[in-house]
User: What shape does this take?
Amino acid sequence: GEDVEQSLFLSVREGDSSVINCTYTDSSSTYLYWYKQEPGAGLQLLTYIFSNMDMKQDQRLTVLLNKKDKHLSLRIADTQTGDSAIYFCAGSNDYKLSFGAGTTVTVRA
Amino acid sequence: DVKVTQSSRYLVKRTGEKVFLECVQDMDHENMFWYRQDPGLGLRLIYFSYDVKMKEKGDIPEGYSVSREKKERFSLILESASTNQTSMYLCASSRPGGVGYEQYFGPGTRLTVT
Assistant: This one.
């Protein structure tokens, strides 16, 4: 299956940009996803990118995909306190998803 | 809106007990999944089902079994609970098409085995 790695913690000041990085091993993933988990809740799909795209922008979110390096990143512009959460990247392999360990983002005032 | 519900948010069980975790989805999804989530390890797939009465082992099936008698319901069974099964359990469902195989998650069940 797919191996997905991401750093575990990120601390960012309110109003700054956050960048969460992820690397994956299986280049056959058709879609790559970013999920957000708020405290005490399940995961919600935040955004995704199709594997033939390099970039996708969705309001404050920008996803960058470097297929050559198998590197995926999520940038959150103007980070707010409501962005404090765990962020998971995931790759698809058929109908199964492989998740990274999750990056805990803490937004400080 | 897709809704995935799990029978309990918090559960405390004793070692050796048989434990049932229930998951129900209301969007007629073919695929259903059970994960456990542990700090630093992310989500690990226990079992999944792609149709009624069908099941496949995930990455960590040992100590668990599943049942899918109806399309909307997927149960996770701990035959004899052990302390190392203390964890957060997440259920998800998906269907082919749309955003690839986007999965919709329930709120999770935090299980403590003492």
About this structure: The longest strand of chain B covers residues 31-38. Residues 19 and 78 of chain B are 5 Å apart (CA to CA).
